[in-house]
Amino acid sequence: MARLIGMDEAGLGPNLGPFVVVVTVWDVPSSPRQFDFWQAFNEVLTNHPKPNETRLHIADSKQIFQPHRGLVTLERGVLSALRLMGFEPDSFEELRRQLSFDSSTSAADAANLAYDESHLPLPSGQHDFSIVDAWRQCCERQGIRLQTIKAAIIEPRRFNQLLDEYDNKSLVVSRVAFQLLRSVWSPDDTETFIVGDKHGGRNRYDELLAEVLDGEMIFRLEEGAERSDYRVAKTVLRFQPRAEEHGPVALASMMAKYVRELAMTQFNRFWAKQVDGLKPTQGYPVDARRFREQIAEQQRQLGIADGDLWRNR
Known about the structure:
By secondary structure, the chain is α/β, with parallel strands linked by helices. The protein has one domain: Nucleotidyltransferase, domain 5, CATH 3.30.420. The protein is about 40% helix and about 20% strand. The strands form two sheets. It has a seven-stranded mixed β-sheet with strand order 5-2-1-6-9-8-7, sandwiched between helices. Strands 3-4 form a two-stranded parallel ribbon. A hairpin with a 4-residue loop joins β7 and β8 (about 230). The termini are far apart.
């Protein structure tokens, strides 16, 4: 049995709401670098849906999610994947607990959201999950297993602390991602292939990987604009643009976006109760400033510190 791991993130650009990194971990029956994810799941998944498509659409979250269309397509895909592992969260809070890779980090982040007491039930819409049985049968026939999905959900206070420490958003991404990755990956366990997007256009990752690898030898296979490949024991790691062409990365992209959007839904519901007629925000810089100005008085009255609300970069 070999292992295939995809990694992606959502929410690096906004000033409001969390930054989210997700890994999806798959056991596969053959060499993970040669394993064809899309062919293996062709009967149940597609990254190029046709009209009236019944298969699950798994792709870069930017292709799937449009704010005006809501969470429908995104939610069906990610909740189907969770059901494949036997997990059916009935609330956002339960989803956060299940995905969090570090219980102490999760508790600290929850403290940052203590002012938000709203409950967000899941699913947020009506979905047909009957395809999950076909997906499960497909996995059983081919000896494939979705082992786990884990997330680092970095709320504004922690994000600002990391920015102060590293003074570089790209370094924040890399260090958060590699700590999360290390929680689900041991280089010596089994033949493994790890794929993720480039971090801010960075081409070199060996020094950052070394910080979480406890003296493991890192061999540089290739470094450049199109890909950066490394070998560590039984693992090959690849960082490339458009990594969502790999199914495990696409699912990670979708899960990261889903978590981020649920967090913003919860955030907007809370503030709508505080300010009459307040227009919701997705947290991106120009609109985030508008939102921040409109909630300023209520924020002061509630005693919510700027650092718990606003990401400095």
